[in-house]
Design goal:
35% of the residues lie in helices and 23% in strands. The chain has 464 residues and is an alpha/beta fold. The protein folds into 3 domains: 159 residues, FAD/NAD(P)-binding domain (3-Layer(bba) Sandwich); 109 residues, Orthogonal Bundle (protoporphyrinogen ix oxidase, domain 3), CATH 1.10.3110; 106 residues, Polyamine Oxidase, Chain A, domain 2. The protein has a 7-stranded mixed sheet. Strand 16 and strand 17 form a beta hairpin. Helix 1 runs parallel beside helix 9 and helix 2 crosses helix 15. Bound molecules: flavin-adenine dinucleotide. The site of flavin-adenine dinucleotide (FAD) has 38 residues, from helix 1, strand 5, strand 15, strand 19 and helix 15.
Length: 464
């Protein structure tokens, strides 16, 4: 089998797809990246004298694909786990330790009953999950509807939504239960209760010598995309913004600036909204469906505090914030979670701003946002109101929202994609790096099948 493949977009999804494809020696693979360097959202930024993650800061280890890729790239020994697993949730009375349990669903009834981050009424409501009848209807519903029905409004809003909604920068009352955390619906169906389901899942994880929840290459996430780019060498072309993809015979012609690339297959590893622009002529109905996936804007605020502040921080990886309570939705205590000798005794903190329902904040100038968040931090943590250095990394329309019906939308996109074109990225079947790498593996297989002419594109085959 031979063929020319153009991968558009040199973020982790595009690089991982190309990396998988070049294992077939007779495939001619080119990655076209609009920016001056590969990596996409996996990026590092200078904050004072430190180089910090400006986008993702870790891999979810329970989804094994990215960790396996890191090992293939000889980064296995470089993967480190967080130095602390303690997470807090913000309450009106200060930070409270998260009750133990997967996906924020408490498993220890005594701990839940004694948890003072919620009213007595809220705790009783949450415990009713054990006796409430399961939903009879099949099919999708919002994550919020599922949570509220099982554990009540207070536990949903003050405990679980900040964690699960936060991973999507989303609103649990709009996010699809089946597309985001299908485990929860499964727990209700099988165990009749989220608490019982969480307890069973926690027992299984304990029996299986569970790996840490998160992993990260020492020194930052950039090492993963740098290693991919190094393995691909001059197949990756930067400053090559693709402006069109058109049919040419049985294949395609991809245009980037003055250059044209003929391709037997094209993988669009661009953000879904950029992919929509590239598919406007070729497949207008796919372009419209891609534009129908809502995206919200977020920002990452990085703060570096003076010497002597590091040891003052609590021994915790950070905290999440219930919707609308603070300017930030979550805070990572970087110097506690991922300690590094270069920090010295400086507190290094990263806060998330924006997201569903909070995008207005991003209309403000950088310094106003940083100032407001730093003051709030100083009221919560033993930190001075002014950091020594800070930086706001803005991520406009960066987080795809898997709203109710998302899986049907993706299936419709799959059906309508022209043969020989493929989509990969966080807007489809999982928002994180691990999901993107799994998608890359699957798209690479689908490209090979297409080239071999063994399979016509079939439903569910070419969007990951
Ligand atoms: C603030 C933030 C924090 C996150 N934290 C985590 C985390 O801790 N862990 C985790 O697993 N995930 C996290 N994610 C999600 C993770 O970043 C994404 O899943 C992943 O980076 C997506 O990779 P990608 O290659 O699909 O897209 P991108 O990284 O967006 O790459 C797409 C590339 O396409 C290029 N491009 C766009 N248009 C064109 C064009 N016309 N021609 C050529 N190139 C083009 C862009 O320049 C870009 O480099 C986070 C996301 C954000 C925004």
């Amino acid at each position: 089998m031979s063929g020319r493949i153009v991968v558009v977009g040199g973020g982790v999804a595009g690089l991982a797809t190309a990396f998988r494809l070049v294992s077939s020696k007779d495939l001619d693979v080119t990655v076209l990246e609009a920016g001056p360097e590969p990596g996409g959202k996996v990026s590092s930024v200078d904050v004072g004298d430190l180089l910090l993650d400006g986008g993702p800061d870790s891999l979810i280890a329970r989804k094994p694909w990215a960790v396996r890729l890191a090992r293939e790239l000889d980064l296995g020994r470089e993967l480190v786990a967080p130095a602390t697993g303690v997470t807090f949730v913000w309450t009106d009375d200060g930070l409270r330790r998260f009750p133990s349990g997967p996906f924020g669903i408490p498993t220890d009834l005594r701990e839940l009953w004694g948890w003072d981050g919620m009213s007595r009424r809220g705790r009783i409501d949450a415990l009713r999950d054990l006796v409430r009848k399961p939903r009879k209807e099949e099919g999708d519903e919002s994550l919020g509807a599922l949570l509220r029905r099982r554990i009540g409004d207070e536990a949903t809003d003050s405990l679980v939504a900040p964690l699960l909604g936060g991973l999507f920068a989303g609103d649990v009352d709009r996010l699809s239960a089946l597309a985001t955390f299908p485990e929860l619906a499964e727990w209700e169906r099988r165990q009749g209760s989220l608490i019982r389901g969480a307890r069973a899942a926690a027992r299984t994880a304990a029996d299986a010598v569970a790996p840490p929840m998160f992993l990260r290459p020492r020194g930052g996430m950039r090492r993963l995309t740098d290693a991919l780019a190094a393995a691909l060498g001059d197949r990756v072309r930067c400053d090559a913004r693709v402006v069109s993809v058109d049919r040419e015979g049985r294949g395609y012609v991809v245009r980037a600036g003055e250059s044209e690339f003929s391709a037997d297959a094209v993988v669009l590893a661009t953000p879904a909204l950029a992919s929509a622009d590239l598919l406007d002529h070729l497949a207008p109905e796919v372009a419209a469906a891609l534009r129908g996936i809502p995206h919200v804007s977020t920002g990452v605020l990085l703060f570096v505090y003076p010497e002597g502040t590091g040891t003052r921080l609590p021994d915790s990886s950070g905290f999440v914030v219930p919707k609308g309570k603070l300017a930030m939705s979550a805070c990572t205590l970087v110097s506690r979670k991922w300690p590094d000798p270069v920090f010295g005794d400086r507190a290094v903190v990263r806060c998330f701003v924006g997201g569903s329902g909070a995008e207005d904040l991003l209309d403000q100038p950088d310094d106003a946002i940083a100032d407001g968040v730093a003051r709030q931090l100083a009221a919560i943590l033993p930190l001075p109101p002014e950091p020594k250095a800070w930086r706001l990394v803005r991520w406009p329309r960066s987080m795809p929202q898997y709203e109710v019906g998302h899986l049907d939308r993706v299936a419709a996109i799959e059906r309508a994609l022209p043969p020989g074109t493929f989509l990969v990225g966080p807007a489809y079947r999982g928002p994180g790096i691990a999901d993107c790498v799994r998608g890359a593996n699957e798209v690479a297989d689908a490209v090979r099948s297409h080239l071999a002419g063994r399979l016509q594109p079939i439903e569910g085959e070419h969007v990951r």
